[in-house]
Structures
1.
Amino acid sequence: MSGRSADMGTLEGFPCPPAMEPVGRSPSGSHATEFLDRLRAGPPLVLDGGLGTMLQSAGLERGTAPDAWNLAKPDAVVAVHRAYVLAGSEAVHTNSFGANPIRLGRFGLADRTVEVNAAAVRLARAAAPAFVIGDVGPSGEYLPPVGQADPARLRAAFAAQAQALAAAAVDALHVETMSDLREARLALEALREAAPGVPVMVSLTFERKRRGFFTVMGDHLAVVLADLARAGADAVGANCSIASPAMRELALEALATATVPVVLQPNAGTPDLMGGAVVYRQSPEEFAEDVAAMAKAGARAVGGCCGTDPRFIAALRARLGGAPAGGDEAAGGGAPAGGEAVS
Amino acid sequence: MASERDLMQAVIDGDAGRARALAEAAVSAGDDLLAAVERLVAGIRRVGELWEEGEYFLPELVQGAEAMKAAMAVVNPALGARQLSRQPRGRVVIGTVQGDVHDIGKTLVGTLLAANGFEVHDLGADVPIAAFVAKARETHAQIVGASALLTTTMPVQRELVAALAAAGLAGSVKVLVGGAPTTAAWARAIGAAYAENALRAVAVAESLLRP
């Protein structure tokens, strides 16, 4: 903790050039309309891949909030965003998965919610993607009966984060890795109020059960997608928990029922143990084949989640055709290969 | 036996109020309380099976466990008074390792272990190794359960095994690991036990307590 606070003052010395877009522009200056248009028509939007796992590979120590790196190690965060843009990501998610006041509070940073989220947007913008998506993760608390969370408290936390992200002019917001439909709904409603006019995508995390894809709380995929669309989500979908082969099956079910654009971000394939080290057996190409199939089937925004890195996005970009944003540099743009041991 | 009068069914239905009332009735009627406990255990086992079959989800598991707890809170003191006290089957410290905030799988395991008679100390997610060690020492736990959902945090399970050994607890504490990327081979390699899902974790925990 002390190391982090010591580093916090270095933001002024932020080594990256100023963002391409003026920093701090008004929400009306964001590309919300272009983002919505792109979700609805044209080639599928290529998102980024895992961010938390990339930061860990870049040296994020356990016990440190990844979001705190927006203030303490801004250059490392920009480097990850930039690697994804070079690999062909048109939209990157801000490093703000845990940047709601409840989660930040566990690291003593609740009162820096605005600062952490504003920095998250600035760092994503610095990598010059076409779109910056404000990332909103779960509150970290559970509603009854699993936990004792007060819905009003969760709602306020989401609103505080959304307001900060919107003030920093994100082009869209993405509520992701939600396991409880009720919490996802709370977040969606809070974002709508706190960030009017900003498109909102909502992704939950599903597991395959005998009777289909369900959240751990027991909501069926089709029910979740329909409910969120009715509640006004601009895009709905799934991320995390399952790898691309299972997500490909989920995609077909989702696309058959969804009434709004579908967004999908599977994990890298199930890892394996080889010679005592943890490795991902799935190659970026295998991942890309599955995800490209989802896009061809009609998914409107695709990317990766835990374990994926810029190589996965570069492979996806190649499969989908069209010029990668960063050209040939993409191949070398990735930090640690998913196929390498992490220790 | 009419199902409304059955403790097993009250647990399966996740009805804590009914489970408590039935337990109170059994105590005041002087019923065989060990048989009552058996019905409760049968109920929670069925809840676990229904979860494994994809019929039940986390909320039903939690409610089943709450019903079990409500009935046991009534039955246990009465058993004690009759000098038949039912000891916890074992003490477990459980958590998701540091660097990893995925906590649902671990919560499932903790819920099922507690429902099956284990004394469970759930440390939550993103738990430092030192916290696992301290809690294991404090509670005289026989088992430490460590969940990891990322390949980047799996190595922490190995570090935890080493830290427990360094703390002199290797002889008294066994480590049980789980989480999506983990495998039996990984567990063997780091000297831990492995369970591929929450229901299996109960059986593995039981087997770890056998001498």
2.
Amino acid sequence: MTDTNTTDSDSTKSVVIERTFDAPMPLVWAMWTDADHFAAWYGPTGARIPVAKMDVTVGGKRHVCMEMDTPNGAMQMWFVGEYLEVSPHTRLVYTESMSNADGDVMTAGDMEMPEGMPTTTKVIVELTDRNSKTAMVMTHVGVPADSPGAQGWNMALDKLTAHITDAA
Amino acid sequence: MTATLTSGFSGEIIDINGISGDDDDRLTVTFAALANSTRRAILAHLAQGAATVNELAEPFDMKLPAVSKHLKVLERAGLIVRGQHAQFRPCALDAAPIAQIADWTEQYRPMWEARFDRMDDYLTRLQHHTEHRPEEADNNDD
């Protein structure tokens, strides 16, 4: 829990996870940028990734489908996003939003979840060589301050987190 | 409808959300209460200190019963507590449920940890494979 940081630029928390993999940087990079490799680890056990389109260039789009069997039949969850930073083998930044199969961003209301539930997040992957192993730092920012869908949410949080901080 | 989302999910899907059932329900109530600009404005007002219904109604072009409705939603969500003075029943903010939401990104941690466990296994298999079947190494080139 100690490696969960609050970033300075965002009023929301991030999840930060550090891992070292016994693999060279280009291969760990491919885990995130090659659709076949990505599909092999990203979904939870029992889930499939039937679609993973990735245009890994700055401004390029990503579109990922996660599919799993439920008692009510197969259920699909779609995600869209955009690559914000692409520095091969070292740094990757992309956004992720819930979407439909056409790639249209879904609001919390569309997903039949309470409005205000954050739907857009940002993932930052940083890789460093450690004697032919690869150290990876993954930062998952809950609600980017600049995401349009997050504005109402941020407004609520901005006003209230100050109070909580005082009360804590 | 959130119940459908949640109950239709197998354990694995709840794992995707990274939110356990009880927490999920509580978050749902809190998010629903926050999903209204008037109620957020009321909470922002209360963040400055306790206030009566009349004081809270003042900035809004709204009848008292309408404001009371919003206060009931906030009270059910545990976001405010109300005093027992029959006449005034001053409202005060209870920050605990919001503190829980402020921490919600932490719910993602177990999901990512599990993913990276799988990435680790996959990398091991992949490289083991490549050693024994060198013809596959070409497929891994960028």
